[in-house]
Amino acid sequence: MAKTPLRGGPARQEELLSAALDVLREVGYGRLTIDAVVARARASKTTVYRRWPSKSALVIAAFTEATKAIPTKPNTGSLRGDLLAILDGLVIELGSFGDVIAGLVSEVQRNDELAGAVRETFVRARKQAMVDVLAAARERGEIPADTDVELLWHLGPALLFFRMLFLGEQLDAALVRRVVDGVILPAARAGGRP
Fold first, then answer.
1. Which CATH number is 180's domain given?
2. Could you tell me if 32 and 89 lie in one domain?
3. Which of 161, 154, 34 is nearest to 100 (CA)?
4. Residue by residue, what is the 3-state secondary structure of the chain?
5. 66, 21 Cβ separation under 8 angstroms
6. Domain boundaries, position 45
7. pLDDT for residue 11
8. How does pLDDT run along the chain (194 residues), one tens digit per residue?
9. Does 21 reside within a domain?
10. Integer Rg of the chain from CA
11. Based on the number of CB atoms within 10 Å of its own CB, is 31 exposed (0-12), middle (13-18) or buried (19 or more)?
12. Residue 190, exposed/middle/buried by CB under 10 A (0-12, 13-18, 19+)?
């Protein structure tokens, strides 16, 4: 007979974070309450506050847990292949928790703690993967040596996020190919400058 995990251990924490994400998806950050999270998780406020001292801390923990898979730098041998791999992965991620990100967009502008957590747990790793593949392409001679990779890395994620968040479009592999072939590669070959 399998042992039931302790209610106060990692399994309970996972339940609480999952409940926080569910409530965030349903009502957004502004209307999310600890009461709603504890009702969803069938927990007490004490259980939540013992782990996270505020709503912001709980949401940060939930977001961090949901986005903890760090993208690895692909090594397809070509800039195009690497960009497709990274952006296809981002589309999959956004399909899983893009609604959570959408729910946090306005709050990130007002909440420095939340903004910092989003930058550290989500943006930084994805930026690094893009910068790494652009730098590798520069080293292979696929793009000019003075290419501004710090500017270029934004292009793919920015287009995908904009289309998802503000246009309500479904993201797919065909769109990724259009972005890579029509925007990022031409800009990269021009050194990241108009």
1. 1.10.357.10
2. no
3. 161
4. CCCCCCCCCHHHHHHHHHHHHHHHHHHHHHHCCHHHHHHHHCCCHHHHHHHCCCHHHHHHHHHHHHCCCCCCCCCCCCHHHHHHHHHHHHHHHHHHHHHHHHHHHHHHHHCHHHHHHHHHHHHHHHHHHHHHHHHHHHHHCCCCCCCCHHHHCCHHHHHHHHHHHCCCCCCCHHHHHHHHHHHHHHHHHCCCCC
5. yes
6. 10-65
7. 86
8. 343 333 568 888 999 999 999 999 999 898 999 999 999 999 999 999 999 999 999 999 998 888 887 777 899 999 999 999 999 999 999 988 888 888 888 889 999 999 998 898 889 989 999 999 999 999 999 999 999 999 999 999 999 999 999 999 999 999 999 999 999 999 999 986 65
9. yes
10. 20
11. exposed
12. middle
The two tokens of residue 106 are: 């306005």
Assess if residue 95 is contained within a domain: yes
pLDDT of residue 194: 53
Kindly state whether residue 16 falls inside one of the protein's structural domains: yes
Domain check: are 50 and 38 in the same one? yes
Is residue 41 assigned to a domain?
Answer: yes
